[in-house]
Structure formats: C-alpha cells, structure tokens
# Entry
Amino acid sequence: MYLVGILLAAAAFWMANSGHYKPLMLGFAAVSVVLTLILSLRFKIVDREGSPYARLLGFLAYVPWLAWEVLKANWVVIRACLRADLDISPALVKVRTTCKSDLAKVTFANSITLTPGTVTVEIQGDKMLVHGLYEANTVPESFISMDARCARAADPRGAAS
Amino acid sequence: MPEAANMMTLDWNTVRTAFGGALCLLGALLCIVGTIGVLRFPDIYTRLHAASVTDTSGAGFVLLGMALMAPDWIVLVKIVCILIFLMLTSATSSHVLANAALTAGLQPKIGPMRKGQPDGEVSP
Amino acid sequence: MMMAALIALIVSMCLLLIRALMGPTLYDRVLAVNSFGTKTVLLIGLMGFVMGRPDFLDIAILYTLINFTSTIAVLKFFRYRSFQVPLARRGEPRAVAPIAGGEPNA
# Structure
C-alpha cells in the first residue's frame, strides 16, 4: 500500500522532470524507479510517513496561510537588518504545543523555523524551545493560532494511527 | 478573431517577462539584505534569523520570478520542485544548526541591545 | 533586469564569504556555507534563464538536495565526531553526544 504510494510519487517525479517519452527512456525510468523502491526498502522508510497522502488536503489548506505569515514576519526582520542602530532584543521562550502526532509536531516546529524571526532550538515531548529576534513578538501566546492550524492540518482526525 | 488572441498572448508574454524580471531583482535584493543581517547581527542565533530571510523570501521571490518567465510547463514543474525542497530543507537545516549550537554549549545573548545607547527602549 | 539580479546575487555571495572566513565559531561558518549554497541554487537557475537554457534547473534541484545533505553531514560529524552513529529513530532513546554541553538551561 505505502509502496504503491512511493512508486506513484517516483514515477510522477520522473515524468515531470524528464520530458522525454521514448521507449528507451521509459525503460530507464522503470529501472530507476525500481532501484529507488529497493533502496527505500533497504532504508526501512516505507511506512505512513513515507507516503503521507492522507493529509495532503489539510496541508494544501495550511500552506497559503503559512506563506502570508512568513511574508509578514519577513518585513519585521528586514527592517531589523537595515536599521542604523541594531535595535533587537533576542529572547528564548518555551512553547507548549497541543499537537499529538510526530508529523504535526514536525510541521509546527518547521513552520516556526520557516518564519523569519523565530527558530525552534529544541523539542522535548510537547515543549519546544524557541529563540526569537524580538521579545515582544516571541511570547507563547503568539504561536497559539499556528499551533491550532498545524494540529488541524497534520493530526489524524480520530483515526487510530 | 485570431489577431485579437495573438495580441492578447503577446501582451501577456511581455507583462510576465517584465514582472518576472522585477520579482527576480527584488528577490536578489532581499538576498543582499539578509546577507547584511548575517554580517551585522551579534551571535549565531540572531544570524540564523537573517539567513532565513534569504532562504524564504529571497529564494521565494527569485523562484516566483523564474516561474513567471518559464517557457513551458516542465520548467514550471522543476521550479515548483526547487521551491518545495528549498522550503523544507532550509527550515530543517536552520533547526539543526540552532540545535547543534545549543548542544555545543553556545549561550545565546538575551535581552534588549542597541548600538550606542546602553539601555535602549525596545520598539515593537 | 536579469543581469542586475545576477549581479546582486553575486554581490551578496561575496558578502557571505566574509562571514564564512571570519565567523567566530564553527556554526557561523556552517551557516554561511549553507546560505551560500541556497544562493548558488538561485544563481544556477538565473544563469540558465539568462543563457536561454532552462535545463540548468536540473542541476539546481540536485544542488538543493546536496546542500541540505552536506549541511546535515557536517553538523553530524562535528557533533558525534563520527559518521557511524545512527541518528535517533522513533521509539529509541536519542544518542548521547560525547561533546554535549549539558542540558540546555533557559
């Protein structure tokens, strides 16, 4: 089941990147896809995280919101970079997340890191250590909406994963 | 009306080339801004923030500009692939860098700092 | 326009080299090299568009992945002083770093 997901993904990636559809080239494609499958079996990465298609719609709804947040945060950091007086106040805060699954936690931590001005430094259980460029922007309350959206996008809904 | 359609496509091509070039230039300028931040900020954790400006908005705008100028759909798909990989990997490597620096015992500088004045007020 | 973007990218890469050369700690240098790699990806792509051969984007994709892998590999080596240590997997305890600076206190 998961193997089929990886096979489809690899075949689609080859098709999208090659643009040559002659029989010889398609033969090479089949060989390389099978080789990729053998390698991923050897690495033991064929599991639920290897082909996460069940949550694709949730992620697609989450990405535009994240992009807008990243743009807003970018403006703050760009202004901080170009100020004549280096007016920053770095802070280190602990953020507690409500995400349950590993995928949701990783999504949340990566979203925090992707937003300029905040970097996730350490994850232990459901607590994260976040370093921020401005003390005023890096309070635990400012991550609540991102946390809720990550949990909605990536946590399995009632499914016993 | 083949002529009208021709006009329309020509117009769209001109517009998208101009917009794409402008977006590429904007992204490259943002890269310079991020680099200036990397040079100016005091310690490794704050430099990470400046580098992530380069990685997100700089690369994003340059790739968006290239996507607008893409001649066919294969190029577009490749640019989207680069964008997805870049976003995933830059976030992960920033986190790994910060984690490694903290594990090695580098303490971040905390608290308001301002060049020149010893006790500056923090602007929001 | 594209030439201007190319020149701006090259200028910012030169500025990054300053940080990579005089970075006080190892991690500053790794950060500079990682950022340099990102800019190299953009430079390869833009170069392909300027020369009218967007096939360069294949190389750019490859460079993205290699850049990420090399950053992780360098950091893993300087943390564990070996490539033979397995990274943490689900359910297993995290490998303890021999040069760890103790628990993060903050």
In short: The mean pLDDT of chain C is 80.
